[in-house]
Fold this protein.
Amino acid sequence: MSLAELEARIAAMDWTAAAAALDRDGHAVLPRLLSPEGCREAAAMFAEEARFRRRIVMERHGYGQGVYQYFAAPLPDTVAALREALYRPLAAVANGWAERLGRAVRFPDTHAAYIARCHAAGQTRPTPLMLRYGPGDYNCLHQDLYGEEVFPIQAVVLLSRPGTDFTGGEFALVEQRPRRQSKVEILPLAEGDAALFAVRDRPARGARGWYTAQMRHGVSPVRSGERTTLGIIFHDAA
Ligand SMILES: O=C(O)CCC(=O)C(=O)O
Ligand SMILES: [Fe+2]
């Protein structure tokens, strides 16, 4: 899949619907962001050790079970293109959230400008990553925070075919509202779909205006086969 095709696919997504879903629910799905060929090409990068700066065996840290790897700089072209092209429409949503939550922070229009802010804050290491889960593997509920600088929305692209390449392994979001019990939501994803979701918190509408809902995400145990994902986090790490 060429960069031009990737950029065309991102531009062709229904961003009005995605922004509305993010505002309403704190998450959205971009269907078929990557073609099947694009998914195969991306998944093949997992085995190319030189592309990554750090490999994490999740059970060693109590994060779950499975392996993930952070890309080294410079990012592969497709990953950099995804990060830059997804950023722009998400920055508009993120600014709306900041306004509703009464936060002073505003996000610039381009990812290059935002990454300069991360670097100035000492967050210089790239965070885009690939994750691979085999039978029994799972990802505990967590938040991807790597310092003070946080871009409030992130993306994950499913590179495998549910039901064919793997079973189980569902992407889950848990939302904690003040003084309420937690709500869980499973996002059904097809091959190439991207889930967009709140990193840490989001504004949710209540009877008396906006309040802050805390969000965490994770993956339920894979029952069979192999599940590979590409995670796009927009802030860099300290
Ligand atoms: O594998 C997944 O679906 C979730 C990956 C994840 O936690 C992330 O991209 O931050
Ligand atoms: Fe994550």
Q: What stands out?
A: The chain has one domain: 3-232. The longest strand covers residues 209-219. The first helix runs from residue 3 to 12. Residues 12 and 125 are 30 Å apart (CA to CA).
